[in-house]
Design goal:
The structure holds two protein chains of two kinds. By secondary structure, chain A is mainly beta. Chain A contains no helices and eleven strands. Classes of the chains: A mainly beta, B mainly beta.
């Protein structure tokens, strides 16, 4: 089956620093990747949609300058949390849509970010 | 906004069937019903999807009412490992879709 990986699986960073999370589609090309955020005991919240080679589309209320998304290739999208603060601590999950079978969606295992 | 309504939590005895309901009264004709589950601190796991016919796979069965306004996910013999949050989602099955998660149902399978 289609596999999506995320790296790192968990990261701890200090307040004010930036942290990058990678999302890779391992065995397929993904024209679209989604980024979600999940706070404890809450549901997944869609943050943004990234399409290969174009700017990401952010959901209402998500700061595009704080959450930088780059989808530079058909197998890699990155989410950079800039100037992280403790309130950015969350579980970040990506999902990828195959170039072929563009109606399917495969989720990554998530990245736990803790900002101290 | 999510287009589905689910009970916040349910209990089920191990070995018994778990029946998880979902209301999607505003579903459009071209929208499918998808079910995912999320075990603690993991990404969502696909379970099953359907349009209007009942569906079954190795994990579960999906029963969709004739008017398509509600559905039920059935785990025929629940195990402790089925304890998770189950999400019912409606979306189109074409390019350009978005998957919006509702609150889901937290299923506790008890020994």
């Amino acid at each position: 089956g289609a596999v999506v990986s995320q790296h790192p699986s968990r990261v701890i960073c200090k307040s004010g620093t930036s942290v990058k999370i990678e999302c890779r589609s391992l065995d397929f090309q993904a024209t679209t990747m989604f980024w979600y955020r999940q706070f404890p005991k809450q549901s997944l919240m869609l943050m943004a949609t990234s399409n290969e080679g174009s700017k990401a589309t952010y959901e209402q209320g998500v700061e595009k300058d704080k959450f930088l998304i780059n989808h530079a290739s058909l197998t890699l999208s990155t989410l950079t949390v800039t100037s992280a603060h403790p309130e950015d601590s969350s579980f970040y999950i990506c999902s990828a849509v195959p170039r072929v079978l563009s109606y399917e969606q495969y989720f990554g295992p998530g990245t736990r970010l803790t900002v101290t | 906004d999510a287009k589905t309504t689910q009970p916040p939590s349910m209990d089920c005895a191990e070995g018994r069937a778990a029946n998880l309901p979902c209301n999607h009264s505003t579903i459009s004709g071209n929208e499918y019903v998808y079910w995912y589950r999320q075990i603690h601190s993991q990404g969502p796991q696909y379970i099953i999807h359907g349009l209007k016919n009942n569906e079954t796979n190795e994990m579960a069965s999906l029963i969709i009412t004739e008017d398509r306004k509600s559905s039920t996910l059935i785990l025929p013999h629940a195990t402790l490992r089925d304890t998770a949050v189950y999400y019912c989602i409606v979306r189109v099955r074409t390019g350009g879709f978005k998957t919006i998660f509702g609150a889901g149902t937290r299923l506790f399978v008890k020994a």
